[in-house]
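Entry:
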Amino acid sequence: MRRRLLAVLTVLMGVAALLLCLPLAEGYARGRTEHLLLQRRSEAVRFADLAERMRTDADRAELVAEIGRYADLYGAGVVVVDTAGATLVRAGTTPGAGAVEARSRALTGRSTDRLPTLRPWGPGGVVLAEPVGRDERVSGAVLLAVPTDAARRDVTVRWLLVAAGALASFAAAALVAAGIARWLMRPVLDLDRAVERLAAGSLRSRAGSDTGPPELRRLRRHFNTMADAVAESIGRQRDFVADASHQLRNPLATLVLQLENVEPHVTPGPGLAEHARALDEAERLAELLDGLLALARVESGAAEPARQDVSRAVRDRVSAWAPVFRAAGLDLTAADVADGLWAHALPDAAGRILDALLDNAVKFVPSGGRVEVSAAHRPDGSTVVRVADDGPGVRRTHGDDLQRQVARADGERQGLPEGVVRPALGARREPQPAYGAGVPRTAGERRRDGADPGAQHGAARRSGQLPAS
């Protein structure tokens, strides 16, 4: 935007400079032409007076000598003609184009009162005429062929000075415009960066620039006030989630312990089955509270990104989940995991990604299914962790719901593990062409250059992407 504003100001200043310098240059050219006409016309009047007084040979000799000296001095041509157009006296060059028109005008008693405007490129010479005699007593005409070299040189020099002044003024105005554009756009750019950081999850981001016009400074203060209010509100929500989850864990643990203690005293039958379901629901509630606590810790922003060994994290998590998958009748493999994969992310980000994806896979892939875990470098320098399975997919209509921290698809609870992973990575989700089992979204993190990486996957594939370390 700064470049566009500067371009607009530059164009406007260039047009203004042209509108000022062109009339100035044209005005000087016209003035220099008028000055030349007045100078040479006074000489033509003097020659016409001498021609009118020419009666004797002595007068003729005086006229010849006078126009000869003039022609030699100025490099001009002088011709005296009678009313029939016959030449009486001549000196210097012969008048060229325009001589016939000027002579006809002079023989009718009218002097030359206008010359073509002189410019650096021409004309090279002009012709002016002065009648000999006055009114009905016109007895001839004096024609002057005037060279314009000196006058055109003056016009050229003055035009160059005008152009230099215009360029200097334009350069000074451009510097001023650059300063004005910087003054106007600096708070806008600072506010844009602050909004981007705030949208990315950095609740401590504020606009710090205190320059620019009053309206932008007022906008900065309003934005910072809004950011403070948003951060305070989100902080209270996170504190509430953490406190509520923590306060509920102890009563829930007591409830689970009491249910387990009651089990030996429940007689076989419908009551025992209801007791088992109640115990399962209590354990699921405990898992939900653990997830909420993890989410609150991640969203608090206390942890800083660090360098992580993704290859080791993938192998460790696959080893940890292998017994769970065997018990569920699933085949979990990690054959395509490259060595030396590193990432710059929050602590245990790779482990959280895999826990979320593998947890969804073990829940929703039918017994006998196959789950493959892979990790590799990408051309953009990031590391992609991919979990693919052959289980049933999720309908496209549920794609947006799965971005929530808690969502349901086909009556089953989904989304909480991904809800924990998503803030851990600080990533944005993008819909994929097809959705696989579990949570079929890409969990990724922005690279340090600000790009928003994504990972492609098939109809039964979930992947997580981490920035290069």
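DSSP finds nine helices and 13 strands in the chain.
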